[in-house]
Amino acid sequence: MFLPKYTIKIYGLLVDIIGSNTISLIIDSPKISVSKLLDELYKKYPELKRLEIPFSIYVNGRLADDTECSPNDEIALLPPGSGG
Amino acid sequence: MTKPDIIVDIGREDLSLDEIINAMRIKTSAKGAGAIVAFIGFVKGLVNGGRVEKLVYTAYDKYVKEIIYDLTEKVVEKYSNVRMVYVYHKIGELSPGDSTIYILVSAVDRNTSFSAAREILEAIKKNAPIFKLEVREDGEYWVIGDKRINRSELRRNPS
Predict the structure, then answer these.
(1) CATH superfamily of A5-78
(2) Are the beta carbons of B156 and A17 separated by less than 8 Å?
(3) Reported CATH class of domain B5-45+62-129
(4) Cα–Cα distance between A37 and A27 in angstroms, integer?
(5) pLDDT digits 0-9 by tens, B75-102
(6) ipTM entry
(7) Fewer CB within 10 Å: N-end or C-end of chain A?
(8) How does pLDDT run across A27-53, given as a tens digit for each residue?
(9) What is the rounded CA–CA span in Å between residue B159 and residue B151?
(10) CB contact at 8 A, B52 and B46
(11) Where are the domains of chain A?
(12) Taking CB atoms and an 8 Å cutoff, what residues of chain A touch B156?
């Protein structure tokens, strides 16, 4: 049986921390809230939490606070921006 | 109230400011505009006493333009006298002295142009998904707000 795989694109310093441009999480649920997804990410990569940086999750290009996402969504984990 | 024109672009080339300013003057004078403010950010050659070799900008490529557009629109909604905004952010490797961002605001009055340009810049600096790596003679640093995080402390050891 195939379990749902969530693919998360990552940017900036996250690429250095993880050593890749994407993170894959196998979660036994077809949908998950963004806050739970972030908890799963912190569980798998505790070094992200240790940095004490407010990371944001975007779903299909939109900043997601309390929405749900599924493996079909385009999910991104972003550090704070530093444009300008 | 007429909605102001907002143009947002991302690229690696410098802009020809004369061309843009002329186009904005022509386009907005008939709408009552009489003041353009142009802000140009550029790469510092010295930060915290360390010589900067280059900045490397990357972005949440597929959506960055749309997000900057939304941030800009949210600012100009507060200013009924803004007639046109042009925002251009560079990405890629930039050397000291290279321009990084251009923000031009055409408005009915100068106060509006100055205030809106400043507010758009602050919104972009805080909320645009653009990421800056500062390569200095004393190391490579990710810039996060006022913090700098040394890249060598982040890299995952291959297991």
Answers:
(1) Beta-grasp domain (3.10.20.30)
(2) yes
(3) alpha beta
(4) 9
(5) 999 999 999 999 999 999 999 999 999 9
(6) 0.91
(7) N
(8) 999 999 999 999 999 999 999 998 889
(9) 19
(10) yes
(11) 5-78
(12) 16-19
